[in-house]
Amino acid sequence: MSQSFARHRRLRKTPAIRGMVRETQLHKNDFIQPVFVTYGTDVKLEISSMPGVFNFSLDRLGEEIDEIVSLGIPSVMVFGVPETEAKDSLGTGAYSDQGIVQQAIRMIKENYPELVVIADTCLCEFTDHGHCGVVHTHEHDGHIHADVDNDESLVLLAQTAVSQAQAGADIIAPSNMMDGFVQVIREALDEAGFEDVPIMSYAVKYASAFYGPFREAAQSAPQFGDRKSYQMDPANVREALREAESDVQQGADMLMVKPALAYMDVLRVVRDNFDLPLVAYNVSGEYAMVKAAAQQGWINERGIVTEMMLGLKRAGADMIITYFSKDVVRWLREEWV
Hints:
The chain is α/β, with parallel strands linked by helices. The protein contains 11 helices and 12 strands. Strands 1, 2, 3, 4, 5, 8, 9, 10, 11 and 12 form a 10-stranded mixed β-sheet that branches. The longest helix is centred in the middle third of the chain and has 18 residues, at 150-167. Its EC number is 4.2.1.24.
């Protein structure tokens, strides 16, 4: 038989050879584990649409952080779930010194000083209307319309970022998608003496249907309307470059694309055009779909999740925020043994 064709299979012959030539590697340092902190005491409440993910009260948060630290995961992203009666139109719980996120940050940094704590910086969990900023209503043609005021919202978001940094957050991660949010938060942090606190910008955040389970977890669903006037249209990718470029110019230290799986092309385009560290957020809906199929026995969860994570890294992600972080690191440990 002719030997003129390439023998690609030579480099796939054994596990050892495949490992030696593997182009993309997963490592525990790639992962950021989200944590949900809620009010009350002795609370460990599983989120029904996200099996294995829990809301923890402050007195039980240590159980989760202990596990994360023991696995060697380097970072957590903190989300707060306040009491419903504590919410108001301006989301004051987001920037209160005694807010649930601020309390959680202090607790984590006091007990786990080496863990990198990222604060999600937004108002939606703390507003009674569920939007990511200050809302004004007006009547037009007999209908009541609500608009999120961009510049008024920036003032409160800057206050939130500073309060989180004062509590000890290592990284500020603003997720609101208001125009100018990186610039205003950078200025506020610098003026407050936090020049060394980096900003992980949710630079490219789409108005996605994949967020549903998170809104259950964080109790942050909009009470009216939607977020399409400030989050991006899923059909657009050139717009993503404009958003990312603005954040780079305004002083972002890291860029994020959210969601991840349906937007790997966006990850690649952002990676190819900017040299800042790039984060992919593997969001709640992506997690829930895999868990639901795995519970039915329809898929190999470990295989599927590993492929997903490799795909995000191939697309250009340096870091991955995912609810699978603990599982993936456990699987990696097994491979190392």
